[in-house]
Design goal:
about 290 residues; alpha+beta; 9-stranded mixed β-sheet; 7 helices; 15 strands; globular; binds 4'-deoxy-4'-aminopyridoxal-5'-phosphate
Length: about 290
């Protein structure tokens, strides 16, 4: 697979208040964000030039920084305006938007009180890949041995770089075994989420169930889908879900900015057939983000 490396692309990245040529956006190797994972980020998608739930993402970015005990030195409005300016500058309408902030090089130690906070935004082309027919085949998930930490052991509600360490390990483990992704359980063995997306089930009672976001990000797509399901008069039950309940699942799908709505066909030995629910939610979400 040939991938254009992310440090060797054309265009501009907004860095600390300036539109900088893409290749010149460097940070020093001795940066707190790099060594101690003091970095927060957002993953957003623009459809036809409009960023879906842009403000919610910007609010979450600021909140993630606050959880990591730092403040982004820009206003919410400035970040909102800059994202749009960047989309125009880069002439992109269907793209991914990555806004992020991290601690700089002034202190390299556990204590980082006096580090400068750097802020950047980059956008790149990223159309939604799969046609609905391919998506409806469903992806295969393994079940990871890595578990989501409890909320008193990690800042689990921030979208923070450090939390992805176990996600990358879990995903690699699954990919090496031929799976597309993996299901992560929480520290206490409850079903949590995939490595970069939340999870929903239709159970044999006909209702839709999704785990409570106690140990993981309450995704913006997750809440969008819950609203969407409720608007269709479908009952959504947010609760603790045990692994053994997978035997009662009739349909399953993942939700996330990147994943959008991704039907799941298999989790370890449990198989489901993506059906009417997956199809309907996939279609409704696709319409909503483009509305
Ligand atoms: N969980 C994790 C670990 C994620 O990385 C993401 C993607 N940001 C999500 C859930 C879904 O969040 P959202 O719907 O806000 O993209």
């Amino acid at each position: 697979m040939s991938i254009i490396p992310f440090d060797d692309r054309d265009g501009y990245i907004w860095l600390n208040g300036e539109m900088m040529p893409w290749r010149e956006c460097k940070t020093h190797v001795i940066s707190h964000g790099l060594h101690y994972a003091s970095l927060v980020f957002e993953g957003e998608r623009a459809y036809n030039g409009k960023i879906f739930k842009s403000k919610d993402h910007t609010n979450r970015l600021f909140n993630s920084a606050k959880i990591l005990d730092f403040e982004i030195p820009w206003s919410l409005e400035k970040i909102e305006d800059t994202k749009l300016e960047l989309l125009e500058t880069m002439k992109l309408s269907n793209s991914y938007v990555r806004a992020f902030a991290w601690r700089g090089s002034e202190m390299i130690a556990v204590s980082a009180q006096h580090t400068k906070i750097h802020t950047a935004i980059a956008v790149w082309e990223w159309p939604s890949y799969f046609d609905p027919e391919t998506k409806m085949k469903g992806i295969k998930l393994d079940i990871s041995n890595w578990r989501r930490p409890p909320a008193n052991c990690a800042p689990v509600h921030a979208k923070a770089a450090g939390l992805y360490m176990i996600c990358t390990l879990a995903k690699h483990e699954a990919e090496k075994k031929g799976f597309d992704d993996t299901l992560m359980l929480s520290h206490d063995g409850l079903i949590a989420e995939a490595t970069g997306a939340n999870i929903f089930f239709r159970m044999s009672d006909g209702n839709i169930h999704t785990p409570l976001p106690k140990t993981f990000l309450n995704g913006i797509t997750r809440t969008t889908i819950i609203d969407l399901l409720k608007a269709k008069d479908l009952e959504v039950i947010e609760r603790d879900i045990e692994l053994e309940e997978l035997k009662n699942v009739t349909e399953c799908f993942l939700t996330g900015t990147a994943a959008e709505v991704t039907p799941v066909g298999k989790i370890a030995e449990f198989e489901f057939k993506p059906g009417n629910l997956c199809k309907e939610i996939l279609g409704s979400y696709s319409e909503l983000v483009r509305a």
